[in-house]
Amino acid sequence: MILVTGGAGFIGSNFVLDWIAAHGEPVVNLDKLTYAGNLENLRALEGDARHVFVQGDIGDQALVEDLLLRHRPRAVLNFAAESHVDRSIHSPGSFIETNVVGTFRLLEAVRGYWSGLQGEEREAFRFLHVSTDEVYGSLAARDPAFSEENKYEPNSPYSASKAASDHLVRAYHHTYGLPVLTTNCSNNYGPYHFPEKLIPLMIVNALAGKPLPVYGDGQQIRDWLYVGDHCSAIRRVLEAGKVGETYNVGGWNEKPNLEIVHTVCALLDELRPKAGGGSYQEQITFVKDRPGHDRRYAIDARKIERELGWKPAETFETGIRKTVQWYLAHGDWVQRVQSGAYREWISKQYAQAA
Ligand code: NAD
Ligand code: DAU
Question: pTM of this prediction?
Answer without folding.
Answer: 0.98
